[in-house]
């Protein structure tokens, strides 16, 4: 027997009634994965058990052949030669890896530390306080829950998340948790400036005018996601975040010192080690779509750890489900007879709805929109 359940995201899914019951028991606590740890669990619930990903294996630690580029932005405005060198490195990283790290990006280390501390304070405050904010209504200004794809994926991730839309319509101060509201807004302002600079460099890397990607709307939205990955008693059975690519134009990620982020490269999982003061930047699905596959939105994951909690903050440049009816397709200046469009025109909301309804199932949502 199977049970149909229609999610807030739309769509009807078939779930085993035993699994559905276990999910609902977890969901009704409104305490997330953090709540399981607070209860002292030593065996993780079955709903978090992941099948082994046996078609790829992690590269051995210490391998120096494959290292995600770390790009120093300090001299981007020094002179034309320095700028062109940085643009060249960003172009190569975006085409080859889909990922790179940036240092000397203009955001003070104190702000980065304050943000990580603020996110941690939110998750480690009294559970009864957090429960009042637990919701699956994505139109709320601040959304806190565990596993946005709770009914649409094979297994849940060992992670809790909050989501906040910062641009173009920032939330009212009173709509944000007191323990992290000021630093969330401050960091959002910094990331917005950095993102615009990165879009200029990415535009030039494509051979376009510096303001091209900004002018077509790539920087019109900014969504902040604060992740909390508790220490896991059985990390070999689950994942912090399942293999996926990002449903945005560009992601800027702050990760703490614990590590666990891996990118899929040449059928191997490559670690992205934390670099003090650095931010991880990766190409999103929508940027791959509008560059007609020139820049790559690459699958990545987060492994579960025995140690924790791991804190990370991902900022997505996208308007998400709150986007306008504006259509995006391959940039015409990049097309030719030998390079015809590979994707149909879509709205950002259409892409995000499909992505969310599909869940983090290890397949790319981009395939659905190919011509």
Automatic annotation (TrEMBL):
**TM helices/strands, residue ranges:** none
Q: Does the entry feature the keyword Electron transport, yes or no?
A: no
**Keywords linked to the UniProt accession:** Iron, Metal-binding, Oxidoreductase
As cofactor, the record names: Fe cation
Q: Taking every annotated instance into account, which residue ranges of this chain make up the domain Fe2OG dioxygenase?
A: 218-320
**Keyword Cell inner membrane annotated:** no
For molecular function, the Gene Ontology terms on record are: dioxygenase activity; metal ion binding
Tell me the protein family, please.
Answer: Belongs to the iron/ascorbate-dependent oxidoreductase family.
UniProt-recorded name of the protein: Fe2OG dioxygenase domain-containing protein
Native source organism of the sequence? Psophocarpus tetragonolobus (Winged bean)
């Amino acid at each position: 027997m199977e049970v149909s359940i229609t999610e807030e995201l739309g769509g009807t899914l078939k779930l085993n009634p035993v699994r559905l019951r276990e999910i609902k028991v977890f969901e009704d606590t409104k305490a997330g994965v953090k709540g399981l740890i607070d209860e002292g669990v030593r065996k993780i619930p079955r709903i978090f058990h992941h099948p082994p990903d046996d078609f790829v294996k992690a590269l051995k630690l210490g391998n120096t052949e494959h290292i995600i580029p770390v790009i120093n932005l300090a001299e981007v405005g020094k002179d034309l030669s320095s700028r062109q060198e940085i643009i060249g490195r960003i172009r190569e990283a975006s085409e080859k890896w889909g990922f790179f790290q940036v240092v000397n990006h203009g955001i003070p280390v104190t702000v980065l530390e304050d943000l990580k501390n603020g996110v941690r304070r939110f998750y480690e405050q009294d559970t009864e306080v957090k429960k009042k904010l637990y919701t699956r209504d994505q139109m709320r200004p601040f959304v806190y829950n565990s596993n946005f794809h709770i009914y649409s994926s094979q297994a849940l991730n060992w992670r809790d998340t909050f989501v906040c839309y910062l641009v173009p319509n920032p939330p009212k101060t009173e709509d944000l948790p007191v323990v992290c509201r000021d630093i969330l807004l401050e960091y959002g302002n910094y990331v917005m400036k950095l993102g615009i600079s990165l879009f200029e460099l990415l535009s030039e890397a494509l051979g376009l005018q510096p303001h091209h990607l900004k002018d077509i709307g790539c920087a019109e939205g900014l969504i902040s996601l604060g992740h909390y990955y508790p220490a896991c008693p059985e990390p070999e059975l689950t994942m912090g975040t399942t293999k996926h690519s990002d449903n945005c134009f560009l992601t800027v990620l702050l990760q703490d010192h614990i590590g666990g982020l891996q990118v899929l490269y040449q059928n191997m999982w490559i670690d992205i080690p934390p670099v003090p003061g650095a931010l991880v930047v990766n190409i999103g699905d929508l940027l791959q779509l509008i560059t007609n596959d020139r820049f790559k939105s690459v699958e990545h994951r987060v492994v579960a750890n025995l140690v924790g909690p791991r804190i990370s903050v991902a900022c997505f440049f996208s308007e998400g489900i709150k986007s306008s009816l504006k259509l995006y397709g391959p940039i015409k200046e990049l097309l030719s007879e030998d390079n015809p469009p590979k994707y149909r025109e879509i709205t950002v909301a259409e892409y995000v709805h499909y992505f969310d309804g599909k869940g983090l199932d290890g397949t790319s949502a981009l395939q659905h929109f190919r011509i």
